[in-house]
Write a structure and sequence with these properties.
About 2% of the residues have low confidence. α2 packs antiparallel against α3. The chain contains 14 helices and 14 strands. The protein starts with 9 loop residues before the first strand and ends with a helix. α5 links the parallel β6 and β7. With 464 residues, it is α/β, with parallel strands linked by helices. Strands 9, 10, 11, 12, 13 and 14 form a six-stranded mixed β-sheet that branches. Strands 2-5-6-7-8 form a five-stranded mixed β-sheet. Strands 1-4-3 form a three-stranded mixed β-sheet. Helix content is 36%, strand content 21%.
């Protein structure tokens, strides 16, 4: 807990203020990959060097900052450097504040202050332009913009400098920055401190220690851990590089976009989004109609049919839906002390429910044909123990909603089978523990049909 000396206010970061889980920013955490942060730091230092030493040859600057990096990492940062130099020229007459600056929103009545930072400030006769350097795809959030504009003076503006694309985007002021931040602070003060698992768990640095994805042993804050999803564990069967680039090295996807995997997968995602939007609504029919009004007309009939089949199975089995997209998983640790390494395996149940007897049921919605679900069953079985207890069987209902009639496949895994599932997962993720976090070209790649749908297929081909 930090305090501003000038106001004796408790500092609350924007990340903590807007996190869906109150525990995300509090408590012990493990050491996790920080390739994207390190990439940002190197690029920032390279730009500072270039602006201070304007006459230095570009090749000399690049060698000075990138010479010890892997070929791929050096190329990524060099490309961003050239993008910034091209899209954001700084006049010789400008005065540059290269140290960055923090802006603060003080809410004395709530005893809190919220900071936000800029990377550089460019001062000219026309005013001061504050720059937030971005090496990823995320823009400045509304909450961050509110902090900046709440403390801005006349003549000051703010921009996001997107190094990966060379775009310079104005950071607009929210309609009422102070009201937005005050509301967030009031909500934050009432949220408590419990763990609330959700989609952000995949990126959380506390996944191995918060308890939502428990280990069978204490997890030291000195342990090196990586968070992976069910999809990542499945992908390890074919190519290690793809998973390492996603979860360890943060390599940008080709063209910054997901690869088109075909209409059937796109429709499956739409259906899962429909279920997420409608289940739990006070009026299911109205929620479905509202969702379908926003999808392409060609998709409406099939989506409505799958929804009706989904609800038919729910009713026939006497299930009461509780939650959608509920995260479950396990943390697998090997080694001791500073040598400990581990993986937090996280998956998302489409639905959790209770049957007529009150027993817990996990529901998976399938819009395609049956495939091998061993990995999925293993993760769900070990992950459900945290919520249903070690002695309760893990029951999974797999609903095939595109079939006519719709069909349910039931899987029940007892305590003994759960232990075997945990050991299978341990063997599957063990290669992750041997990856070099400093070398994105070290994890092995394998060519095959999966390459056609890979988000890194062009970059990977260039670095084989």
């Amino acid at each position: 807990m930090a305090y501003r000396a000038v106001a004796n206010l408790r500092e609350v970061s924007v990340a903590e203020l807007t996190a869906a889980c109150p525990a995300a920013a509090r408590g012990a955490r493990t050491r996790q990959p920080a390739a994207q942060l390190e990439r940002w730091r190197i690029l920032r230092d390279l730009l500072v060097d270039a602006w201070v030493n304007r006459d230095a040859p570009t090749e000399e600057l690049l060698e000075r900052h990138l010479g010890v990096l892997s070929r791929l990492e050096a190329d990524l940062i060099a490309r961003m450097f050239h993008n910034v130099r091209r899209s954001f020229p700084v006049p010789d007459s400008a005065e540059i504040d290269l140290e960055g600056r923090r802006f603060w929103f003080d809410a004395e009545e709530l005893g809190a202050t919220v900071p936000a930072s800029v990377t550089f400030s460019i001062n000219t006769d026309e005013g001061t332009e504050h720059v937030r350097l971005k090496t990823g795809r995320s823009r400045t959030t509304d909450a961050e913009a509110a902090v900046l504009w709440s403390a801005a003076e006349d003549g000051e503006t703010f921009v996001d400098l997107m190094a990966s694309t060379g775009e310079v985007e104005e950071i607009a002021a929210p309609p009422d920055p102070e009201a937005l931040l005050t509301d967030l602070l009031e909500e934050h003060s009432q949220r408590g401190s419990g763990v609330r698992p959700g989609p952000a768990c995949v990126w959380c640095r506390r996944a191995a220690t918060c308890g939502a994805f428990p280990s069978d042993r204490p997890v030291s804050s000195r342990a090196r851990t990586v968070n992976v999803t069910k999809t990542d564990v499945e992908a390890l069967e074919s190519c290690h590089r793809r998973v390492a680039w996603r979860r360890v090295h943060g390599v940008p996807r080709d063209d910054g976009e997901e690869i088109d995997m075909g209409s059937s997968l796109g429709q499956g995602r739409l259906f899962h989004a429909l279920v997420g939007a409608a289940e739990g609504a006070d009026d299911l029919r109205a929620a479905v109609d509202t969702f379908l009004a926003g999808v392409p007309p060609s998709e409406v009939a099939e989506l409505r049919l799958m929804w009706e089949n989904h609800r038919r199975l729910i009713d026939e089995e006497g299930l009461a839906v509780r939650q959608t997209e509920f995260p479950v998983g396990i943390t697998l640790i090997e080694g001791e002390g500073a040598e400990a390494v581990g993986t937090s395996v996280i998956a998302f149940l489409d639905l959790t429910a209770r049957d007529a007897t009150g027993a817990p049921v996990a529901i998976e919605l399938k819009t395609g044909n049956p495939t091998d679900h061993v990995i999925e069953d293993d993760i769900y079985a070990v992950g459900l123990r945290r919520w249903i207890g070690p002695d309760t069987p893990a029951v999974i209902h797999r609903h095939y909603v595109r079939w006519d009639p719709p069909t349910c496949e039931v899987v029940a895994l007892g305590p003994g089978e759960v232990e075997a599932a945990a050991e299978r997962l341990r063997r599957r993720v063990r290669p992750i523990h041997d990856w070099d976090w400093d070398d994105p070209l070290q994890p092995a790649y394998a060519e095959g049909p999966w390459c056609n749908g890979c988000e890194f297929r062009l970059t990977c081909r260039a670095y084989r």
